[in-house]
Design brief:
- InterPro entries: CheY-like_superfamily (IPR011006), Sig_transdc_resp-reg_receiver (IPR001789), ST_Response_Regulator (IPR052048), YcbB (IPR013972).
- Keywords: Phosphoprotein.
- This is Stage 0 sporulation protein A homolog.
- The chain is of the alpha/beta class and 284 residues long.
- It is built from 13 helices and five strands.
- The chain folds into two domains: 129 residues, 3-Layer(aba) Sandwich (Rossmann fold), CATH 3.40.50.2300; 140 residues, no CATH class.
- It has a five-stranded parallel β-sheet with strand order 2-1-3-4-5, sandwiched between helices.
């Protein structure tokens, strides 16, 4: 991972750079004491992760993130802050910040936060890559490799744990989700080249009912995530799955609906949801 660091305190930059390099968390491709100057650098360097201070003289961190996010769609942002205001933290998340690191900087916290963001970023990129590539094996005449019993059991465990964390493991639709994901795993593919109805029709006499159950369960999971986000923006379940299984903008819309700020619910892209579960299950 390539890091770019922004803080108007040179000592903080030196500490962060030391932690990243000595703990083999990645490489620091650049640093800046100014948010304005950093905008030009990051446009050229395209770092994977930017760590930026919230309070700076020339440009605050939230403004920087909003501006940088316009041309760095695949970059993750971590914010340094001594501020604990929920409103300001909420504004930072809405701008595109992934995590906060509290000042004064602690090496253990820095390493833990960076590890989480790196893992999440890698997962997002893997999911995106798999969603953009049609699986040639799906249309190939060559025999499909069989999954071992141990591999299938491990995938089932990962899948069940995720559904539990979303609070939908007891939902009737969760069984349908498991069935659909395991079918995709066994056929070494994603759902890109078929509709959800066609997928459900592979092993159900009532594909429409199964599809509706899957949609309801996935939507319930998003609602549960939205409630977690309202209670705690830093919740690990919220920060990970709202950016992988779901689209963060849609989760945020659901949060606004729950708060009474909007009359529109968030929308769940079921194909993306199932494809992400496939990736999680393959990387157990």
């Amino acid at each position: 991972m390539k890091f770019y660091l922004i803080d108007d305190d040179r000592n903080i930059l030196n500490i962060l750079k030391l932690i990243i390099t000595t703990r083999n968390l990645g490489t620091v491709c650049g640093t800046s004491l100014s948010g304005c100057d950093a905008l030009e650098d990051v446009r050229l360097l395209a770092p994977d992760i930017i760590i930026v201070d919230l309070l700076m003289a020339d440009m605050d961190g939230i403004t920087f993130v909003r501006k940088a996010d316009e041309f760095l769609s695949e970059t993750a942002f971590i914010m340094l802050s001594q501020v604990s205001s929920k409103d300001m933290i909420g504004s930072a998340y809405e701008a595109g910040v992934e995590y906060f690191i509290q000042k004064p900087v602690n090496s253990v916290e820095v390493e833990n936060v960076i590890a989480k963001v790196s893992r999440q970023l890698s997962m997002q990129r893997t999911i995106q890559k798999m969603q953009n590539i049609f699986m040639d094996e799906m249309s190939s005449n060559s025999p499909e490799p069989e999954r071992t019993t141990s591999s299938a059991a491990a995938s089932r465990t990962v899948l069940t744990n995720i559904l539990q964390r979303l609070g939908i493991s007891g939902d009737i639709g969760s069984r349908d989700i498991v069935m659909a994901v395991e079918y995709l795993l066994e056929h070494d593919g994603q759902i890109n080249d078929m509709t959800l109805g066609e997928l459900c029709g592979r092993f159900s006499d009532s594909p429409k009912s199964m599809e509706q159950r899957i949609r309801r369960a996935a939507n319930t999971g998003m609602v549960n995530l939205a409630h977690l986000g309202i209670e705690d923006y830093g919740n690990d379940i919220f920060t990970e799955y709202s950016n992988t299984l779901y689209n963060f903008e849609q989760v945020r819309r659901e949060m606004d609906y729950i708060r009474g700020k909007s009359d529109r619910h968030g929308n769940v892209k079921i194909k993306n949801f199932l494809n992400a579960l496939v990736v999680y299950s393959q990387n157990q």
